[in-house]
Amino acid sequence: MIWLILVTLLDKSSSSIWFKDYCLIPPATCGLIPPGHLHPFGYHKQPLEQMDVIPNAISADEFDKIYIQPEGHRPGIFRGLQKQSKATLYWDDKYLKENFGEYKVLTEIKHELRQEFGKRLNTLSKFLEEYNTTNQYVVTVLPDEMRREVLMPSFLQCGTYSHNLLELNLWMGSGDTASQVHYDADHNVHCLIAGKKSFFMIHPDQYKKLYMERLEHTGSNYCPDINQNKVDMLEDSSVADVDYQWDVLHPGDCIFIPAQYSHQVRSYGRSISVTILWDPTVQFDTDSMGDCEPNNTSSIADHNVQRKS
Known about the structure:
Layout: H1 2-9, H2 27-30, E1 52-53, H3 60-68, E2 76-78, H4 86-90, H5 93-100, E3 104-109, E4 120-123, H6 124-130, E5 136-141, E6 165-173, E7 177-178, E8 182-183, E9 187-202, E10 213-215, E11 220-222, E12 245-249, E13 254-257, E14 262-278
Parallel strand pairs: 1-2
Antiparallel strand pairs: 2-13, 3-4, 3-5, 5-6, 6-14, 7-14, 8-11, 9-12, 9-13, 9-14, 10-11
């Protein structure tokens, strides 16, 4: 009876596709409310086909040809790439505090708002004492000593990209974090060391449906008005048409995120990640490979990165 009263009060001349006259069943069933309304991003429709699983031993030139060149330019998953790294095997809170507790790290608040760039400098030890009871997580340049315990993907050990590594970052939190839908300026391999994360990957041809806004000072785009935890499908109706791929990372898994490829990330429970960024403006030179032979035990500390901690 309530829904009958509601719809009869609506303007009969309305062109809204969501409101129907004389609906006597719950609104989600009869079309009053669009799928995913006031739910987290991704509830609006089923994901597309799964992302590629990339061989962990893929060469740099093959990776460039398949995933970075314009005809490719797509994300992919590396299953178990970091599974045998010391980071994945040993980085519980006790180990981190005993071995790296004195290092300075930057923290931010959960449920980011990219209009706010408030950061706090802390020691890793102090963060570990507080993070389960406070609304913060670590996002900081990976301290040099910790780099010895993370493996470098084989395709970043040789050739052009190995000479254009820009930055290594450490991410850590107690869970329940959700990024905004955004894209970043650089190519990125995101490796999960502990916990569980889901990734929603959105092709650039979907940008207009997401109302993307440019942040000149960061070189990245994001959706300023869309609440990723509670999408208003009536206000932001074009989001209902956004196609995406989705997958879950477990400890040791990595995902390649191309530059300017929109994504949204959610973490569940305690999580630690390391991200490896490199310059997307440099064209790969096949002659740069030389006699380089990748080593599956090589750590990221063995390779030159432009930005140091």
